[in-house]
Amino acid sequence: MKKILIVEDDTGILELERDYLEANGFTVEIAADGSRGLQKALAEDYALILLDIMLPGQDGFQVCRQVREHKNTPILMISARREDCDKICGFGFGADDYIVKPFSPNELVARVKAHIARYERLTCGENSDGKILRCAGLEIQLDARRVFVNGEEATLKNREFELLAFLAENPGIVFSKERLFDRVWGIDAIGDTATVMVHINRIREKVEPDSVHPVYIETVWGTGYRFRKFCAS
Question: Which residue numbers delimit the Response regulatory domain (predicted)?
Answer without folding.
Answer: 3-116
